[in-house]
Design goal:
616 residues; alpha+beta; Heat Shock Protein 90; Ribosomal Protein S5, domain 2; formyl-coa transferase, domain 3; 3 domains; eight-stranded mixed beta sheet; five-stranded mixed beta sheet; 25 strands; 29% helix; 23% strand
Length: 616
């Protein structure tokens, strides 16, 4: 072993800077968070040359005194923490006292700052961690940090930077995260002289979402609000139909701080299970509020990761909050005709009372004996302010065979001798009768309800009904014995997973025989599963069992069973079956197939009138 040397303060600072300043975007994040802690109401971020050339952050916060302006670049110098007791409940964005020291160690920094009431401000120039110049200057209240030539003295770090376009985009993303976390602060971001976004700072999260994520994404959002055991969740999640190709638009904020958390991502995506299309991810901006003492932000120098004193409470809060928002979505997917007709936020016309029905199909007590499968209501979580999450199961519908629509309250019979009853208020939209106009292309049902017209994918709608019934009833699929047993050889980890979950696979309708290390023999599969898909289905189940996701494996099989059992495009469909499907869709009880595809699109009379020039 060589001689142990004590590193110089400059080298130590440059090494420590690598933990905080990973790339120019890290500088943007730290400086904007400092502006937030300074009480700024308006922040401007300017980026040039991908941030490596210049980053300027201007705020109208409290500013600094001359002595503080010089001390702020020293390591472990902070105005937000006084002693160890402050670590027990950190409520500020920064607290470690490392950011400015790290930034100044690997770049050239200029600071201009003035407190309100001071006759003049202070200008400080720093390079490589050393103060080069300091003196009075005239300037407005607040602070301006200008950071140039990042990594100029650490060429080893400089060569790992990406293109200016990529680094500039990352800088914008970091500024956007802080802006989304604090919608009460107006943030303006410029990249190479072009405005990337501008948030109004009106305190409304939806305004910040609109400014940063755009109109289309914002209009597809569903509001989230709830509280459970001291953890409150608010914000927005996207409609399942607006799934994204990645998790790039999943934003989580804890007490206003943007964080990354695999646990919260899992909670959110679990709420979308069997609703969002496979391979798609939801977008969200969720604001989690809890006691500062219940979260530890002193985990990593970048402060992007946190630890919760009760991970389960936070997980449940996000899961049930998102789930309640999805279950509250009543309208089916709106058809996009043109930009001029996108009036999704416009109020709908008042619903008309449902006419009394004296014959034919009555939604209150339909009992068909056809091949339609009955939907059972699964317990629905009630998530709102209060102590704990409770489940309120709805009574199962009366069944006499085949499909029976869930029972609705029956209106009392009229007595011809009684006085006329008062005129009732207009019935809600789901009580308006649904009329099936017909079927087109032997795949899509055309139906109307009030002033709405539905185009329904009969296979997707029926598939969802069957899946919900199987899952809610705990149905065990029947098996079909294969005339020619199949041999399949999973990987060793998959083979262990199959052997450990043999009882589950038997319950799902599989009959498997182990051949040891040589694999397994498939002797039977669920009744509605194509034997040619047996190996592929087991392979998918294996992957989920290896992750311990027993419930997901069961759902995977039930999805396949439901798909095979559902009516298919090209089949002749009985009018009674089409009527049931139309009513289920119009009521909002089914909206997406188990794979996440929408089951219907909707047109309103107003949209049609506009397309035909009846109205402007």
């Amino acid at each position: 072993m060589g001689v142990i040397n004590l590193l110089s303060p400059l080298v130590a600072d440059m090494i420590a800077a690598g933990e905080v300043v990973e790339r120019p975007g890290s500088v943007v994040k730290e400086l904007v968070e400092n502006a937030v802690d300074a009480g700024a109401r308006n922040v401007t971020v300017e980026i040039r040359g991908g941030g490596a050339t210049c980053i300027r952050v201007t705020d109208d916060g409290c500013g600094m005194a001359p002595d503080d302006a010089g001390n702020c670049f020293a390591r472990h110098a902070t105005s937000k923490l006084k002693d160890e007791r402050g670590l027990e409940a950190i409520a500020t964005m920064g607290f470690r006292g490392e950011a400015l020291a790290a930034i100044s160690a690997v770049s050239r920094v200029e600071l201009t700052t003035r407190r309100e009431g001071d006759a003049e401000g202070t200008h400080v120039s720093v390079a490589g961690g050393e103060i080069l110049q300091m003196g009075p200057v005239g300037c407005p209240k607040g602070s301006v940090f200008t950071v140039r030539d990042i990594f100029y003295n650490t060429p080893a770090r400089l060569k790992f930077m990406k293109s200016d376009r990529a680094e500039g985009s990352f800088c914008v993303q970091q500024a956007a995260r802080v802006a989304l976390g604090r919608p009460d602060i107006s943030v303006r971001c410029l990249k190479d002289g072009r405005e990337e976004f501008f948030t109004p700072g009106d305190g409304r999260p939806e305004s910040a979402l609109y400014a940063i994520l755009g109109r289309e994404t914002t209009l597809a959002m569903l509001p989230v609000s709830g509280e459970n055991e001291g953890v409150s969740v608010a914000g927005f999640v996207s409609s399942p139909a607006a799934g994204r190709g990645s998790r790039a638009m999943e934003f989580f904020f804890v007490n206003g701080r943007s964080i990354r958390s695999q646990s919260l991502q899992a909670a959110l995506e679990q709420a979308y299970k069997n609703t969002i299309m496979v391979g798609k991810f939801p977008a969200c901006a969720l604001y989690i509020t809890l006691s500062p003492g219940a979260v530890d932000v002193n985990v990593h120098p970048t402060k992007n990761e946190v630890k919760f004193s009760s991970e389960k409470r936070v997980f449940d809060a996000v899961y049930y909050g998102a789930l309640s928002a999805l279950q509250g979505e009543r309208d089916t997917l709106q058809m996009r005709l043109s930009s001029s007709t996108e009036k999704r936020l416009a109020p709908q016309a008042p619903a008309r009372p449902a006419p009394e029905k004296t014959g034919g199909y009555a939604p209150a007590a339909r009992k068909d004996s056809g091949q339609m499968a009955m939907e059972l209501h699964s317990p629905k979580p009630v998530y709102g302010s209060g102590a704990s999450v409770v489940y309120t199961p709805r009574p199962a519908p009366e069944r006499t065979g085949g499909y029976a629509a869930p029972a609705r309250p029956q209106a009392p019979r009229r007595d011809s001798t009684a006085a006329p009853a008062p005129v009732a208020a207009p019935a809600p939209a789901e009580e308006i009768p649904v009329r099936v106009a017909g079927e087109v292309l032997r795949a899509y049902i055309v139906a109307e309800q009030g002033d709405r017209v539905f185009l329904i994918d009969k296979h997707a709608a029926h598939e969802r009904m069957v899946f919900d019934r199987l899952k809610a009833a705990g149905h065990q699929p029947m098996s079909q014995t294969l005339l020619a047993p199949q041999t399949w050889r999973p990987d060793p980890e998959g083979l262990d997973a199959l052997q450990e979950n043999g009882a589950l696979l038997t319950e799902l309708g599989f009959a498997l025989e182990s051949l040891g290390d040589e694999g397994i023999v498939i002797r039977a599969v669920p009744e509605d599963l194509d034997p040619g898909q047996a190996a592929a289905a087991l392979e998918e189940i294996c992957e989920k069992l290896k992750k311990g996701a027993r419930d997901l494996a069961r759902d995977s099989v039930l999805q396949t069973v439901a798909c095979k059992a559902a009516i298919k495009a090209g089949w002749d469909t009985d009018p009674a079956e089409m009527q049931v499907l139309a009513e289920m869709v119009a009521s909002g009880r089914i909206k997406y197939c188990p794979h996440g595809r929408p089951v219907a699109v909707t047109l309103t009379k107003k949209e049609l009138d506009r397309q035909f020039g009846r109205i402007q």
